[in-house]
Amino acid sequence: MPGFIKPQLATLKSRAPKGGQWLHEIKYDGYRVQVHLNRGRKKVFTRNGLDWTKRFTEIAGALAIPGEAIIDGEVVVVHEGRANFSELQAELAAGRQGRLIYYAFDLLWRNGDLRKLPQIERKQLLLDLLGENDIELPVLYSEHLTGDGQEMFEHAAKLNWEGIVSKRADAPHRSERTEAWLKIKTVQREKFPVIGFVKDPTGVAALYLGKREGKELVYMGKVGTGWSRTVSSQIRKQLDTVVSPKSKLSKPLKKPQATWVEPSFMAEVEYRDITSEGLLRQSSFKGLRRKL
Question: Higher-confidence residue: 70 or 227?
């Protein structure tokens, strides 16, 4: 049996591919994990090859499979109906495993090397392997659909999932980023009042964002990407007109670096998720407009 196998990675695309040669799976927002089963001995590796067996003993223990196998998949925590990366991080930080689920989506080795087999055959062998050995939670087989990938992506967006991964049914496994695996990610877009900014020499390095919750103005985090130098300078000129001597937030922040402003401007922001601390995750600036 080989040691850790470098994983196959997906190429980011804006639209899902068409055609019957593609398998479409939910994109799970978690940790990529490779499980090695070697005649009763078990090891669990991260996508970079770190040995995390001790962190995932319950998942490894559930994979009671004789002989040799290498399974590829994603560890997630499902919170409010979808995978939540922040909840997963919190569970791991606390050393808990009870909420972890392992979605298995590929079989790279089964008493021999399977990597040259087509994707669809490897998935069928994986499904058979899990079924024959009565593997149950916390391990689940990652189902796929064929057909209209864009339609599946739109369903995933409505359900607030991270997106989909589309895989060529006839492709072998390759340990690199390829166009045989494509990822199409959903994003959320919303307007937030700007409550402060971090200066840089010609403009802004970041914007502090808030959100109205009833009568309170709560902190939603910072956005620091998505603008050119010219746009950064324009933002700074606009915000300099509404500088405030103190924060307008209902609760003070620890060690803020902000120049505070009146919440007179709204920033349109794309973001992936809201963390368990209530902050925007993977946010990107899209535009600024004055409140009417």
Answer: 70
The encoded tokens of residue 196 equal 């402060």
Q: How far apart are CA 172 and CA 200, in angstroms?
A: 48
The answer, yes or no, to whether residue 292 has pLDDT greater than 70, is no
Residue 240, Ramachandran bin (φ over 0: left; ψ between -120 and 50: alpha; else beta): alpha
27 annotated active-site:
yes
In a domain, 36, yes or no: yes
Q: Is residue 2 part of a domain?
A: no
- Number of domains, the chain: 3
Instruction: From the candidates 27, 42, 167, 211, give the one annotated as an active-site residue.
Output: 27
Specify the pTM: 0.74
